[in-house]
Every structure is written in structure tokens, then in C-alpha cells.
């Protein structure tokens, strides 16, 4: 009578036949054969990636969209409210990464040693830009601040509805901290940073909203984003 073969040994033989028939361990492979397909690192070390069809694929990088805008610009508000925010709601978070830069056509000036800003639509727009910059600074997470910015930009007044929008979309945020940011040095520093980001654009921005996709701006990408942002992101996501 032939000696009994342990069940574990039979399983190992079956696994070898399935995963790596006739394949010896590659130099530098420190994993036992039954673990060659347990991870991408193990498969790479043992040079059996092509024989491990069930390996998890690395997640694709999200599409990077940056919006350079002004808080009171009608075209900016339309794109943010009707295109960008709905697209962000529809897509899984890992598909689209959004950066909002409220500054646009503003001008940074040095007045008696202090930074000051002149905005295309007047002082109220400068206030709106800084409020949204401070909101992002305080909230940190886009899931918290983007609905509030949507609320501000879709409402009757960007600068007067902060308290109401916070109560609806982010009651955990302290409006007092946002106000302190706007009235203090932090708000100025945030606007200076946005000015630097905007001035560093290549090619230089010519209008707002100015949209970059994966760090690039072309007339074609801008037109596609404004016509069908959801379709563009789905097309670009690998």
C-alpha cells in the first residue's frame, strides 16, 4: 500500500501546477511557492506576475482638475455650480481630485509694506475670495468645504451667507475661526499663496474660469471641460 500523502502537500502540488507549471523559484525569491501570488511584491520578486491573474491591480491615479476662479465671476459661478460640483458628486472620490484657487484676475499690491489685493469685481469679491480660501484652510477636507462653497456660489450673496451655508452643510465648522482668518494675517497669506499659484500658470491665464487638467491647459481641454466635464473625466481616467 502506498504511503498516504499529506493533504497540504497535495494542495501545494496543485497550486504549483496551476500557478507556475515547470517554473523554479527565481533568484532572490524568498517566498514559499504557495505565497508567490499572495501579493504584487511577492509575484515580482519570484517573477511570476503573468501567472497570477487574480493579483489586485494598482489603483489608477485620479484626474487632477484645478479651477482658477473669482468668487463673484458669473461664468466661474456657473461652471462651479452647474458642472464641477455635480460631477464631483457623481464620481467616486478616487477618480477626481479637485483644487480650487479663488483669485483669478485679482492684483496683489504692496501698500506701505503690507500686502493688499484689488479684485475685478471690487472689494466684495476680494472678501469672497478670502472667505473661501479661509474656509478651505479651516476645513481641510474637500468633502467638508466643497458643499459649503457650492452653497455660497449658488446663493444670492457669496459674502453674506456663510453662517447659513455652514449650518446646512458643515455645522461642525466654527464660523468664528473663519472670520478670524479673513480678518487676520492668515487670510492675507492664503491670498498671497493663491496669487503665486495663479501667476505661475503656464501658459498664463487669460480669463476665468481657467481650468487645468492634470496640470495642463489647452483651449481644447477647456472647451471639453465646459461642455461635458463628466465625459472628459471618464475618458481621461485610466
Summarize this structure as a short list of keywords or feature phrases:
single chain, 238 residues, mainly alpha, Glutaredoxin, 3-stranded mixed β-sheet, 5 strands
Structural account:
The protein is mainly alpha-helical and 238 residues long. It folds into 2 domains: 32-59, no CATH class; 63-236, Glutaredoxin (3-Layer(aba) Sandwich), CATH 3.40.30. It contains 9 helices and 5 strands. It has helices at residues 7-19, 40-45, 74-90, 123-139, 142-154, 162-169, 175-183, 185-199, 219-236, and strands spanning 63-69, 96-102, 107-111, 114-118, 210-213. The strands form 2 sheets. Strands 2-1-5 form a 3-stranded mixed β-sheet. Strands 3-4 form a two-stranded antiparallel sheet. The relative contact order is 0.13. GO terms for molecular function: oxidoreductase activity, acting on a sulfur group of donors, disulfide as acceptor. Keywords: Disulfide bond, Glycoprotein, Immunity, Lysosome, Oxidoreductase, Redox-active center, Secreted, Signal. Its EC number is 1.8.-.-. Belongs to the GILT family.
Amino acid at each position: 500500500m502506498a504511503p498516504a500523502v499529506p493533504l497540504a502537500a497535495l494542495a501545494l502540488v496543485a497550486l504549483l501546477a496551476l500557478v507556475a507549471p515547470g517554473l523554479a523559484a527565481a533568484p532572490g525569491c524568498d517566498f514559499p511557492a504557495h505565497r508567490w501570488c499572495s501579493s504584487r511584491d511577492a509575484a515580482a520578486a519570484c517573477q511570476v506576475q503573468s501567472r497570477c491573474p487574480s493579483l489586485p491591480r494598482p489603483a489608477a491615479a485620479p484626474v487632477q482638475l484645478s479651477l482658477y476662479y473669482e468668487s463673484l465671476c458669473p461664468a466661474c459661478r456657473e461652471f462651479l455650480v452647474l458642472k464641477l460640483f455635480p460631477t464631483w458628486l457623481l464620481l467616486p472620490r478616487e477618480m477626481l481630485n479637485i483644487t480650487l484657487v479663488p483669485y483669478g484676475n485679482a492684483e496683489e499690491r504692496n501698500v506701505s509694506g503690507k500686502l493688499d489685493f484689488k479684485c475685478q469685481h471690487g472689494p466684495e469679491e476680494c472678501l469672497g475670495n478670502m472667505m473661501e480660501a479661509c474656509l478651505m484652510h479651516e476645513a481641510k477636507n474637500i468633502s467638508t468645504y466643497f458643499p459649503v462653497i457650492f452653497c455660497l456660489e449658488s446663493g444670492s450673496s457669496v459674502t453674506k451667507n456663510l453662517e447659513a451655508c455652514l449650518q446646512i452643510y458643515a455645522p461642525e465648522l466654527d464660523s468664528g475661526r473663519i472670520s478670524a482668518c479673513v480678518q487676520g494675517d492668515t487670510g492675507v497669506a492664503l491670498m498671497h499663496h493663491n496669487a503665486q499659484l495663479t501667476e505661475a500658470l503656464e501658459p498664463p491665464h487669460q480669463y476665468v474660469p481657467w481650468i487645468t487638467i492634470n496640470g495642463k491647459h489647452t483651449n481644447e481641454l477647456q472647451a471639453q471641460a465646459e461642455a461635458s466635464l463628466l465625459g472628459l473625466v471618464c475618458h481621461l481616467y485610466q
